[in-house]
Amino acid sequence: MTFAKKKKISLSKLIESYLGLLIDPKDNKDISPLVKSLSGVINLPKGVGYKKDYIKSQTIEAHP
């Protein structure tokens, strides 16, 4: 299965996005409105290893 198919995005849109980043790389630092709206929704206690948990969950999904 191709990357575009897995991500459910057309190949032309994928290439358009990639070329847009090459032309104007500063645009890739913008935060999407969806991400902005989700920012601060969850308050995690200090010391929560969310990055390690995420990586672990991805490993489990990839290799059940």
Description:
This protein starts with a helix and ends with a helix. It is built from four helices and no strands. The longest helix is centred in the N-terminal third of the chain and has 13 residues. The chain is mainly α.
Find the count of extended strands (DSSP E, 2+ residues).
Answer: 0
Q: In this structure, how is the largest beta sheet organized?
A: none
Quote the distance from N terminus to C terminus.
19 Å
Alpha carbon gyration radius = 16 Å
Average pLDDT, all residues: 75
Structural class: mainly alpha
Assign an overall shape. extended
- Percent in helix: 55-70%
Number of contiguous helices = 4
State the low-pLDDT regions, or none. Answer: none
**Secondary-structure element string:** HHHH
Range of strand content: under 5%
A few lines on this structure:
By secondary structure, the protein is an all-alpha fold.
SSE topology:
Layout: H1 3-6, H2 11-23, H3 33-38, H4 50-62
Attribute tags:
64 residues, 56% helix, 0% strand
